Amino acid sequence: MSWFHLIIAGLLEVAWAVGLKQTAGWTRLWPSIITVALMIASFHFLSLALRTLPLGTAYAIWTGIGAVGTALIGLFIFDEPRTTARLVCILLIVAGVVGLKLASTSHN
Fold it and tell me: Phi and psi dihedrals of 38, rounded to 5?
């Protein structure tokens, strides 16, 4: 269940990062309220995952999901540059997240 909580926390991190862009520097009320709610929910699910998962592993995977998800949304929704270097770096983050997950499950 902890891994499920961690994945939910990571997806919520993506959502609040996108929401943060929509707040326009915290000048728009409803996007700001929604973004803060998403942040709280993301931290809540991360805290549930941390009940049983190692801190370093959980935090790295949480930020990895957030970084990759946010980068992909930037590429496909906000039309950010799709350079080879950016795509390779995203793949390296994915490889790191998968590696941490495999290393964590082999230890348990």
Answer: -65, -40
At residue 108, the pLDDT reads: 47
Task: Give the torsion through C-alpha atoms of 39, 41, 44, 49, to 10 deg.
Answer: -100
Q: Which residues contact 46 (CB under 8 A, 6 or more apart)?
A: 5, 6, 9, 58, 59, 62
Which residues of the chain are under the pLDDT cut of 50?
Answer: 108
Measure the N-to-C terminal CA separation of the chain; round to a whole number of Å: 14
Q: Distance between CA 38 and CA 15 in Å, rounded?
A: 7
For 70, how many CA atoms within 13 A lie in the half-sphere containing its CB? 18
pTM (two decimals): 0.89
Amino acid at 70: T
DSSP three-state, residue 77: coil
pLDDT number for residue 106: 56
Q: Which residue has the tokens 């809540």?
A: 44
Question: Could you give the count of Cα atoms lying within 13 Å of 107 in the half-sphere of its Cβ?
Answer: 10
